[in-house]
Write a structure and sequence with these properties.
Elements (H helix, E strand, L loop, with lengths): L1 H17 L8 E7 L2 E7 L5 H4 L5 H9 L5 E5 L5 H9 L4 E5 L3 H14 L4 E4 L2 E3 L3 E7 L20 E9 L9 E6 L5 H15 L2 E5 L9 H17 L2 E8 L4 E7 L16 E6 L3 H13 L2
Parallel strand pairs: 3-4, 3-9, 4-5, 6-8, 9-10
Antiparallel strand pairs: 1-2, 7-8, 10-13, 11-12, 11-13
Helix pairs in contact: 3-4, 3-8, 6-7
């Protein structure tokens, strides 16, 4: 019955979206994620991405690596996709999110309110290696590709927003973090540099997207930044595995010394995700990853 209702809702929402009516009506609907019922608001057309969320490889990581009595840090909240995954798996886990896009932050706070999620903080700012004013480039309100790194996709976006950036360790060193998710479209190095002291102190597991090159013209720039990330991780005794995933789960992984990017292809969607972990946790990390793969 749930599947039938979902399909009917999906069809109706697709029609409204195609007719460009969705952005003019605000309402709430329900979905099930990780067998938990959640409410999804549609505000100014934002919300469809959450409506179609389903269990995938990120849930497998969260189930295996989250420590319930510590803090989950979400760098690049967008409209709360990871928030929903975290809270449907561990409702009482402390969640700390950072999102520079003011529209996404506003939406996510409403998402938290209507679902009555506990212990959630969402800061309307970017994370970087210092306090700064940055320009967020995007093409629509909740653009998940939005970036503060203009050279990542030159002349690609048509909107700009002035945003504040903070370095994590100047403000949040009291948070005992166990897991960090980073999805910041090219700004990974600055985020990690600004978290460096916290990473050394708490030794969290980190899942991070590092994108392949947008075009051949940006290849050298993208590879240089990936190398900086790799070198920074080595300096704090962290190691890297590249995750190989499909829509449902992790299917393989391999340990690497340096992140090597290539020009973007269709395969990149499931090859641009990495797990960073303290060297001392290698045995435990590999055991958990192998368990994820063997369950599928």
């Amino acid at each position: 019955m749930q599947q039938i209702l979902f399909k009917l809702k999906y069809l109706g929402l697709k029609i409204l979206k195609k007719l460009e009516i969705l952005k003019f009506i605000n309402f709430k609907t329900s979905i099930y994620l990780n067998e938990i019922k959640i409410r999804v608001p549609f505000i100014n057309g934002i919300g469809f991405t959450n409506f179609v969320l389903s269990k995938n490889w990120i849930d497998c990581l969260l189930e295996s690596f989250i420590e319930k009595d510590k803090t989950f840090v979400d760098v690049g909240v967008n409209i709360g996709q990871t928030l929903l995954r975290v809270k449907t798996l561990h409702s009482e886990l402390e969640y700390l999110g950072f999102e520079p896009n003011s529209y996404c932050t506003s939406y996510t706070k409403q998402l938290i309110k209507i679902n009555q999620f506990n212990i959630c903080i969402v800061q309307n700012c970017a994370l970087s290696d210092s306090v700064a004013n940055l320009i967020l480039e995007k093409s629509y309100l909740e653009d998940s590709r939005a970036s503060v790194v203009s050279s990542l996709r030159p002349n690609y976006f048509n909107e700009k927003e002035n945003v504040l950036a903070l370095d994590y360790q100047s403000f949040y060193m009291d948070k005992n973090i166990s897991f960090v998710k980073i999805d910041v479209e090219g700004a990974e190095y600055e985020v990690l540099q600004g978290m460096k002291d916290a990473l050394v102190k708490y030794k969290p597991i980190i899942t991070c997207e590092v994108l392949d090159s947008h075009t051949i013209d940006t290849f050298d720039f993208t590879q240089k930044r990936a190398k900086l990330v790799s070198e920074l991780l080595k300096s704090i005794d962290y190691e890297i595995v590249q995750l190989h995933a499909n829509e449902k789960s992790i299917i393989a992984f391999n340990k690497i010394d340096t992140i090597l990017i290539k020009q973007w292809t269709d395969e990149s969607e499931f090859l641009n995700d990495y797990l960073f972990y303290p060297s001392e946790k290698k045995e435990s990390v590999f055991e958990k990853l192998n368990n994820i793969i063997n369950r599928n």
